[in-house]
Design brief:
The structure is a single chain. With 35 residues, the chain is an all-alpha fold. The protein has one domain. The protein is built from two helices and no strands. The chain is rod-shaped, with a radius of gyration of 18 Å. The termini are far apart.
Length: 35
C-alpha cells in the first residue's frame, strides 16, 4: 500500500501580497483617519 503524506501550505503570504497590492491598509487607515 502507498504512503500518503499531507502537508499544510499556509497561504498568508499570498493574502498579504494581495492586501498590499490592492491598498487595503491605506483604505482602512484613510477611513479611520490614521496616517
Amino acid at each position: 500500500m502507498d504512503t500518503l503524506a499531507v502537508k499544510n501550505l499556509d497561504h498568508l503570504g499570498i493574502i498579504a501580497g494581495i492586501v498590499d497590492e490592492l491598498g487595503v491598509v491605506d483604505i482602512v487607515n484613510e477611513r479611520l483617519g490614521e496616517d
